[in-house]
């Protein structure tokens, strides 16, 4: 394979949404901010069709039922999107961790709806992430939280996927995005009894061959884990205090 073509294929493993359906720019020289070359979450986000969850192989996969399988409401505002999915969703049998993504291309702000349409256009069931965090910190719903996602190949059956919009190979996440991300992670850690750590709050690159979520977000993950651990402990203390007060009132 010629070197220029090899460079292209290597670079094409860099991103998240595979937004323009590319890989048709063969021979393009690898440049970090090259919009045409950064296009491959397609490879990573393909649903694990037919695979059984690694940790729960004996459990029977069940179709997601919006009435019966509704997750606890978030304690932070989440904009409902009520997307229609092209295929029935499955209930995620286990939740052991959370995977952080970026959009890659396009850079800047991207809505959950735009991602949903892009993923539908690829013939997928619809948006593969459970949440999308916009530049102003707004959290939008993607897939229902209890449903199996399609965001990290081989890990969709026991993780939740969060997409922080932007291209963090070149941009930096906004303060509003980071604040919303941490609050959302605290909520998820609490409802799924997850302790924030390197094996439970991961970047997409930790599990698949991709640069996602970009260096400028990935290098913040250690601090984000520490913050989430502290905030989770504080919330638990608050709840314990309230419980004590309630007992005294009896
Ligand atoms: Zn990703």
TrEMBL record:
One of the protein's GO biological processes: peptidoglycan catabolic process
Basic and acidic residues: bias regions: 57-71
A Pfam match: Amidase_2
Superkingdom per UniProt: Bacteria
UniProt keyword list: Signal
Keyword Signal annotated: yes
Domain (N-acetylmuramoyl-L-alanine amidase) ranges: 86-214
Record's protein name: N-acetylmuramoyl-L-alanine amidase
């Amino acid at each position: 394979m010629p070197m220029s073509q090899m460079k292209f294929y290597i670079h094409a493993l860099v991103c998240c949404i595979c937004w323009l359906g590319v890989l048709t720019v063969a021979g393009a020289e690898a440049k970090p901010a090259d919009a045409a070359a950064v296009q491959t979450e397609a490879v990573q986000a393909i649903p694990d069709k037919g695979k059984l969850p690694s940790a729960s192989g004996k459990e029977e996969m069940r179709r997601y039922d919006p009435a019966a399988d509704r997750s606890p409401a978030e304690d932070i505002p989440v904009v409902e999107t009520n997307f229609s999915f092209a295929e029935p969703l499955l209930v995620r049998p286990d939740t052991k961790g959370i995977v952080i993504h970026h959009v890659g291309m396009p850079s800047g702000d991207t809505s959950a709806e735009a991602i949903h349409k892009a993923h539908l256009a690829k013939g997928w069931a619809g948006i593969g992430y459970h949440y999308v965090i916009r530049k102003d910190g707004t959290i939008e719903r993607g897939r229902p939280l209890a449903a199996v996602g399609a965001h990290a190949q081989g890990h969709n059956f026991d993780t939740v996927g969060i997409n922080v919009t932007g291209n963090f190979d070149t941009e930096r996440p906004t303060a509003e995005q980071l604040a919303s991300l941490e609050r959302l992670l605290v909520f998820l850690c609490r409802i799924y009894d997850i302790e924030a750590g390197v094996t439970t709050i991961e970047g997409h690159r930790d599990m698949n061959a991709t640069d996602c979520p970009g260096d400028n977000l990935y290098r913040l993950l250690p601090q984000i884990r520490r913050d989430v651990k502290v905030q989770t402990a504080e919330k638990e203390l608050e709840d314990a205090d309230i419980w004590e007060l309630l007992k005294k009132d009896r």
